[in-house]
Amino acid sequence: MNEHIKFTGPADILAFIPHTLGQTPRESFVALTMQGKQLGATLRVDAPFGLDPVAYAHTIVSYLTADEAATGSLLVIYTDENPRENQRPYSGHVQALRTELETAGMPLQDAWLVTSESWRNYLCTDTGCCPDQPLDAITTSNGNAALIYRGSVVTGFPAPAPFTGDEAARAAIAAHQPDVWPDDLEASRAAWAKVLENPKSLTTRTAHQLAGALQHPAVRDYLMGDIITDDADQFTSVMLGVFGSRPDWARVDTAQEVAFELMKATPEGQRAPMLCLIGWLEWLKGKSSFADRYFKLALQDVAGYRLAELLAELVNRGLLAECARDPRTAYDRQLNR
């Protein structure tokens, strides 16, 4: 895992993007920074339907400048927005972005257009020189094969686990909701810590206990913070993704897996805390698109659920977790390239 994967062409780079984002983008701009000849950060944003080109470009570059080692950039536009009628969709936005990137010291080195049918170089307008390429050229590329060999799988959006219990679970969860402060808090934190250390120890009774604990806003916040640190004084900064050191990302992955398991024992109307927890961890990893979907599911489960509204606002404002901006603390999917 310490050897870098060598990408030799555009198809390799286009194969890398779904692996690092977890899904193949649609109607999106994906910008990648270059650190010399190596890929740096990857940023996906929604395609700029009706947005001002300069403001849109400024927003993208403001995120990319977090990569202080960047010396250049690449751009991939995923869209089916009139691709045949317009060989270069969003040309005004791309030109504004090129200008902003040049000013920021990370000039655009190349760009590609990917539709649901094919892909081609965006900057080259000579179809004889740069004809459309089939999508399977991406999936059969050496880069994609190397990523799969390293253990990477593009799973797409992980759907919430369905409820597999009975209606008795609702009463059991309600019975476990903390009402003695702070005694119930410490008991809940101890049960949570035990399950994070050994997920196989999770029983139906423990699942109901933890699901009940998560219904209490204060206890929920402590359990979320405990994934990263047990220092209560740091919880506010932790919720905003500001860490003093690199978190235990394996523990974060375990917490997400446990939350999915908890939802199997939790009926509708009580699942919002788990959905927020999963979405928040996705946001910490830099996967804002996934995070936003979980927050919306939480609001569908419990209308007006305050934590989901607050966390969704972070995503809607385009804010990235501080830990995701810093390579020293960011989530590492072990994709060396």
From TrEMBL:
InterPro entries: DUF4192 (IPR025447). Keywords: Plasmid. It holds the Pfam family DUF4192. This is DUF4192 domain-containing protein. It comes from Arthrobacter sulfonylureivorans.
